[in-house]
Design brief:
Layout lengths: L2 H10 L2 H21 L11 E5 L2 E2 L2 E13 L2 E9 L3 E3 L23 E3 L5 E14 L6 E11 L5 E9 L1
Antiparallel strand pairs: 1-7, 2-7, 3-4, 4-5, 5-6, 7-8, 8-9
Length: about 160
């Protein structure tokens, strides 16, 4: 061993250094064990739009429960696509799930792309919505549960859109 290796080895076995190292290890274990975990997920019971397997479908119109302003236009209804879109006009051209630049002369336009891809609702999945709160602080929550990619056996999970 050269001199540098001897100094490092001596410092690592020093009782003072060992005490701090052990405290650091305990701190890391506590932090990774859930002490600093996220709060539990809030689950809202909602109206089921679709339950069970579906592909390339648009549902609606559905009531928002308040007037929602989006790019200067006010809407009281919405549509939902199994491809992860929330639309404010009926737009059957979004069925492929192929992403395009927005705005596009062909369509779709006038939507929110929460997770825009060629998705399917799993056989155990649901798309649901609910409006919560009192005026003027209402929120529309749209949840896409157990969604997957079309043509692949692996499912990607759950996501939501919240309109304020």
């Amino acid at each position: 061993m050269d001199g540098f290796d001897q100094i490092v080895l001596k410092n690592l076995t020093n009782p003072g250094i060992m005490k701090y190292r052990n405290l650091l290890i305990i701190l890391l274990i506590l932090l990774s064990s859930g002490v600093a975990a996220q709060p539990p997920e809030t689950i809202y019971q909602g109206t089921v739009i679709r339950s069970g397997y579906d592909d390339d479908a648009v549902y609606g119109p559905l009531n928002i429960g308040f007037n929602f302003t989006y790019f200067g236009n006010s809407y009281s209804q919405f549509y939902v696509s199994s491809n992860g879109l929330v639309l404010f006009t009926a737009d059957p051209l979004n069925l492929s799930g192929a992403e395009v630049a927005i705005p596009d002369p062909a369509a779709p336009n006038n939507f929110i792309a929460a997770f825009w891809d060629d998705l399917v609702v799993d056989g155990t999945g649901k798309i649901l919505y609910t409006t919560i709160g009192a005026a003027p602080n209402r929120k529309l929550i749209i949840q896409f549960g157990n969604m997957g990619f079309y043509g692949f056996p692996a499912f990607m999970g759950t996501f939501a859109v919240i309109l304020l």
